[in-house]
Amino acid sequence: MTSADDATTPQREVQRLLGRCLLRLQQYEGLLKSLLAHHEVEGPLADLQVRQAERVAALATTSLGNLAKALFESYVVARAKNGASTVDDGVDSAGSTEITIRTRMTLEMAPEDFGKTKDAIKELVDLRNALVHHFIETFNVWTVDGCARAAEHLTESYGRIDTHFEQLRQWAVSMDNAKALHASFMQSAEFQDFLVNGIAPDGMVDWPRAGVVACLREASTLLGVDGWAKLDAAVEYISTKHPEQTPEKYACRSWPQVLNESRVFDTQYRDVPGKPRAAWYRERPLR
């Protein structure tokens, strides 16, 4: 039988290996908190920084188990069997007049990979709890043999923890790269067209929020008579106040085509003695 003094040196090695595991786990938790705090941004434009700080604070004291649960509820998602995403992108902003922004980065996996990854991280949480709460119950670190078994377990455990850390680090790097591309796109002329004019990068126009439609509404409000505005007068107004808004910008040949394509306005042509028929328009009542 070995004495307690004989186990002093092996005990110190066990302490070193245990500390190494716990430090790596803390690094993992810190990185996971950062990923969960920043993979999604949502709220009124003026409050984004405050809301982001609130997310960071809310996650600061969250346990690894709850962090893992949140990870698979928001960032890591399973692809539906029909190929569609399972992420709910719906935002209820009815009645709001504030500019609201929502961006979310997710990692989508096939269902079988999602299940395997979720189980693996659950095992990591269990490993962490065992190391923190039950280590000396499992290993007799007052004997040389017990220390040897503990050291072997800790070496293997560190390898598992480090593998998970590297996986999470790769996810975080990929997210940062995606955010950089997203930020670059938001500064591009294509995004400005999409945001201000409703013109998607593929050329499709979201007519109800198109810039030219907003200008036609503005002109109608200022120049309209009984709700109807003369198109020629509106075009002259828009050419003066918003010269960048032209039919060609929206792949239209003429202003009447803009009215027709938008499906936002009613159009009628009125006879004027001695002059060509004049086009008038009004915004369609909501049905």
Give the uncertain stretches in residue-range form.
93-97
Q: Would you tell me the structural class of the helices and strands?
A: alpha+beta
Most strands sheet: 3 strands, antiparallel
Number of domains: 2
By DSSP, the count of extended strands is: 7
Helical region count? Answer: 10
Return Rg in Å. 31 Å
Order of helices and strands: HEHHEEEHHHHHEHHEE
Q: What is the percentage of strand-forming residues?
A: 5-15%
Query: Strands across the major sheet, in which order?
Result: 5-7-6
Distance between the termini: 90 Å
Question: Could you explain how this protein is built, in words?
Answer:
With 287 residues, the protein is of the alpha+beta class. It contains ten helices and seven strands. Helix content is 58%, strand content 12%. It has a three-stranded antiparallel beta sheet. A two-stranded antiparallel sheet has the order 1-3. Strands 2-4 form a two-stranded parallel sheet. A hairpin with a 2-residue loop joins strand 6 (265-272) and strand 7. Helix 1 (8-38) runs parallel beside helix 3. Residues 93-97 have low confidence and may be disordered.
